[in-house]
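Morning. Coffee machine broken again, so started the prediction first thing and wrote up yesterday's gels while waiting. Chain of 133 residues, entered below exactly as on the submission form.
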Amino acid sequence: MRRTILVVAAMAAMAIPAISIADQPSQQNEKNAAKFCKALRDAAGKDNFRSMFGGGKNAFGTCVSKNAKKDQQQDKTAHANAAKQCKAEQAQDPAAFKQKYGTNKNKSNAFGKCVSQKSKQKDQQDQNGGSST
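Came back before lunch.
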């Protein structure tokens, strides 16, 4: 009984950090946010920039954190939408879908390739300021 409780407690302790890590922005999102915040700080001036993000000396860190999290959420949304689009496309004509997106010998990687391609297209549209369809 005691051993079971210890095992369950240990598993729960390991699961909590894994859950919190999953929602952390990627390094690329943090780099992009830092570039954006630097440009914003240069354009607005240090005093205005600080007032926009809490008025303290950590305004730059706050800006980066907020924008990196926003970028991470947009990435998640783009991936989810891409998966839905690919699932619908695959349902219409599975053979044509495999032929179009599959790259290995039995075309079994078609779904992953489709999601990757559509996510990258969405990211490119977002960077260019275009609207998605």
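The chain has one domain: 27-128. Going to sketch it on the whiteboard this afternoon.
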